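Let us practice reading a record.
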Amino acid sequence: MLEVKNVTKYYGNFKAVDNLSFTVKPGEIFGLLGINGAGKTTTFRMIMGLLEPTEGEITLDGKKIDYTVTDQIGFLTEERSLLTKLTVKEQVIYYGTLKGMKEEDILTKLDELLEKFEITNYKDTLIKELSKGNQQKVQFITAIINDPKLVILDEPFSGLDPFNVEMFKEAIKELASKGSIIIFSSHRMEHVELFCKKIVILLSGKSVIEGDLKDIKKKYKKKNIFIKGDIDIQELEKLDGVISVEEYGDSYLVKIENEDIVSKVFDKIKKHKNITKFELEDASLNEIFVSKVGESYEK
């Protein structure tokens, strides 16, 4: 289990991380989120033992993370960190060796992963000759070549088309099913919702939202109603408690202040005979993120 306990990090007088705590168990995919400059990168570096917390402690299975533990950690950075003049094979051997693996074991695992990510033909290709998407696959392979106990994924879907996003999703779920502890970070909240049961949202180094994602969404008062059929948009917009009405594909999305408004909206539209859809849903994580971060900035 990864435990981050009351961690604070200063750079001089600047507080980059402020009393942060969370735990991630084996097999869990945990979302660590925030806008640029929120403290995510500093937190990642402390987890990997590259930076010492000013206060608090970080442990993996009860042990402080140092160079005796870092071989059990895989990290996919947001920025490309590949040596572009090496071939795919040379690159992966280099990273695997740094993790203490034998070359024969690296090559066996490499062949398995190249096949999984459908890039077997690029084994002896220079990194610089690969597309951005295939470079991202190689970067992912280098992060998991040693079957790490802890995997940190920072914007893992960067540069990927929808088909390859699905491929990465399955690979990440497989890692979790095998017991890896996974920390997932992305600015794409819809990706976070696909994986993460628990999240922390950072702002200026401090947690502003944390806990079980289902509970967070349930407690957030604002809701969405999806309606399909002919409605009078202006009539709905005049209702107290209706925030907005907008077209959403072949339906309408009605954003409301709280669940008490649902019956008012229904009373307004029930006179229309061609209503084929009326569904209440929790606000998306993206809406909650934008709202909470915005509130924090206004304070």
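A brief commentary: DSSP finds ten helices and 14 strands in the chain.
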